[in-house]
Amino acid sequence: MTELVDAVTAPSPRSETDARSDEPLLDVEGLVKEFPITGSLVPGRRLGAVQAVSGVDLKVYHGETHGLVGESGCGKSTVARTILLLEKPTGGFARFEGRDLFSMRGSELRRARRDIQIVFQDPFASLNPRMTVESIIEEPFVIHGLLTSSERQARVSELLDLVGLSAEHANRYPHQFSGGQRQRVGIARALALEPKLIIADEPVSALDVSIQAQVIGLLEDVQEKLGIGYLFIAHDLAVVRHISDSVSVMYLGRIVETGSRDDIFEHASHPYTKALLSAVPEPDPQLERERERIVLTGDVPSPADPPSGCRFRTRCWKAQDLCAEDVPDLVDRGAGHPVACHFPE
Fold this sequence. Notes:
The protein is of the alpha/beta class and 345 residues long. It has helices at 2-9, 76-83, 106-115, 133-143, 149-162, 179-191, 209-226, 237-243, 261-266, 271-278, 285-290, 321-325; strands spanning 26-38, 46-60, 65-69, 91-96, 99-100, 116-119, 197-201, 229-234, 246-251, 254-260, 331-332, 338-339. The strands form three sheets. Strands 6-7-8-3-9-10 form a six-stranded mixed β-sheet, sandwiched between helices. The protein is globular. Residues 1-9 and 15-19 have low confidence and may be disordered.
């Protein structure tokens, strides 16, 4: 078990600049998503809004994995769903290979969605229990009118082999697989149309540690073979450290710190990032006993009524009057990477 834990927690030896090109594959700027709060007495009357995502910027490059981390409920999955236009954005821009995703309609949007796929968090709920694995994986080809029936069968076999399953699994149903195997089916479906970008929304959070290591290894192998870019969403920093080239830390709808993997894990500046890192278990028992754990007090504020100024200030041990008055910009404050804090470490 120790080896399996180390496989997940140890950073990947891959260089952070191996696959980076000058132009980002995905460029998100000022993304905003609000959900209206309406009254029950007067239908349709807007009383407020849940500020799920508030001005998020992030970039994913060809062949790179960008990790998006934060506590549950901070808006990570909403970012993913809005980029895919499963939710209509309230504001901001998302450009895919230089093209504005949010202005796309009809056939242009349909074509873009072939290049952007998603792997969902729950490997069982994301698969139709009434469909065989073969039908699930070939469904993208049917929807987009690609390949003949025999070609689809051959492609399904290739995809199953790519994700570590065999052709004999094609006629089985999702309930006949383990959680890890179901997630492999979900990955195979996401790879069917040969996308350039995969958004992995908590793809291993529902799996055992040993299965997590297998799925992470599979994602890395597929990326090495096909050069796919990943937006990897998670709350487990150990997993993010292993697989990511760059990382953005999110709190209550905002990015509070972003940079390369080493910037975040070796030179973190934001108090929230420091608190998250202190919660990651240390494999060495002696070091685990000696290190200082940062325990955040108070509850996460409601996104329907976020604090003024810095949204983290109500739980921050460094908060001062300025934090309540002024929203900190996400800029380099001397740490070598952007951080949204008036008083960074």
